[in-house]
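Quick one - first record:
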Amino acid sequence: MARWFVDARGIEWEVWEIRPRDVPADAPAAGAVLTSWLCFESATHRRHLSRYPAHWETLAEASLAALCDGARPQPPFDAGERPLFGVEAWW
């Protein structure tokens, strides 16, 4: 399930949970320990958060914004592109 919220700066974010799926044995990530994380995405930024509350889907917008502020920035991306190699998005 995806959620949308607007942070205190007026930036609109979409957030969803990412869960690893089975990775082929010959894939670069094979053998790595993969856990779930939240992906936060605005029109120009993407962030990941690996430690988050199980009930994140029901949090108030201010709480989601606080989680987003603490999330790790990711490299820039092209709009509409979601490179999710070896993971499955649940939204």
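second record:
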Amino acid sequence: MFYPDKRGGMKVRHSLISTTFLCVVALFLPGCGKGEVTIKGKLLRDGKPIQVDGSTYVTVMFAAEPQGKSFAATFDHKTSQYEVRLPPGKYRSIVHVMDGTTQAPPPPGKGGTKVYEFTANQELDLEVP
């Protein structure tokens, strides 16, 4: 908002210091807190990347422990690679490949047996039963 000053010109109501402070806060606010880590790797069966076509339904999830939010990974059918971004912490991996020979996927939060602790970006290959 503007208002006239004594010389007949216009002044900006907000001061330069306030504006600068807000800009600095806006720049550093996203860096506050725990941030995110990127976890990526391949899905393996018997130690080799799984072979799936584009019609195969593949789910890769990481569920926060204990009983927290789940994060879905992206999956590339051609390379058998997945990637997920999530906050640091402990997670149960849940992998389900539905290729016509398997049953329906497990309910949310179920199906994974191993728990991992992620504190930094890392690569993690997951074995598919």
